[in-house]
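Protocol step 4 of 5: obtain the predicted structure for the target chain.
Materials: sequence only (see below). No template structures provided, no constraints applied. The aim of this step is simply to have a reference model before the mutagenesis design in step 5. Sequence pasted as it appears in the construct record:
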Amino acid sequence: MVLVECIKYLSDGDQSPNFNAAIKILQDSETQWEEKFSPDEVCYIISIISNNVAEQGCDNVELTLFDNHNNYCRGASAHNYSIFLRSWAEFLIIKGERDDAYKKCCEYIYNTSKGEKEKDEVILYSFRGTSDYVINDIEKQTLSFQSPSQFNDPLDTLLFKWLDFKINGISDEGKKEIYYLIKRVSEHLRVRCFVKPKDKENLKLLEVERIHPLMWAHYAESHKGMCIQYRFKNEYFYQDESKLAFRRVKKETYISKTPDLHESINISDALFSKSKVWEYEDEVRILDFDINEKKDVKLQENNENVIIEAIYFGYYCSDETKKKVSNAVRNTSIKLFQMVIEDENLHQLKAKRLS
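Step 4 output (structure tokens):
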């Protein structure tokens, strides 16, 4: 059997008569892997071998495969390297090394969720109410990030619903341990939700005027609140592998198909996808992950990389709220607007400059 053909037999699964022979050949030729195979292929080989060994009983020899080829496998795609890290965590669980499995799971969540580095600055809009907390956020120039497990929408996000489904549906405590660990690590994720309307629609309008009016009704206290316009420079988004921390931005994807909780899911996709009924929101999320931070709400001070450019008062915003906001932004360059109804289009909100 030619070495490079072994991957084909692995992909055929253990139903193939050549499956076990292919694994034996690959195990015996480990020193040639990095010469004969790409990083993606090595990730795949190790994942299959470790899963096979797990089914037949743990072998210390197989654990060295992860250590021996970790640096080489870092050159694989983010997806395949993430699978490699998850297989490593699962193998450590089988060996009873749960502390090490947790650490490896931290690396797994970091790598599978970090996404691509942002290259451009981005303008985003945040709908807020009228509480003192909101005014304080404006005055002190802070941004709060919330654990997605604390969202008031029970259907958001898919990630935690899927994890609970797996944990509750698996009777084998050993097999469900990986889902416990993924959930523990995922509790370090924090999200802030924003809006960015599609570029191709109503280009003659200001961007804030292209936002769906239901956003004012649902997220700004029925037009009594406000909308804050932020400019995020690309330096605001980062990745720090040594600290297992990142901050990324991504548009929400709206799907019509109901996810099958029995299947595996892409964790990153699960954090950035919702039912198509929410498509009007044009939501964009900033995802923050720091393995050393686990508060339900993470409060971050703004800096030169995140700027409040404008605040838009809702149609029914009270004079009292406007006065509080005006005092909070005094001596700043923040522009203030009032949302009004377009004279010639009763279905269109317009932004009128106040200061």
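Step 4 remarks: The chain has two domains: 3-96, 122-353. The chain has a mean pLDDT of 89.
Proceed to step 5.
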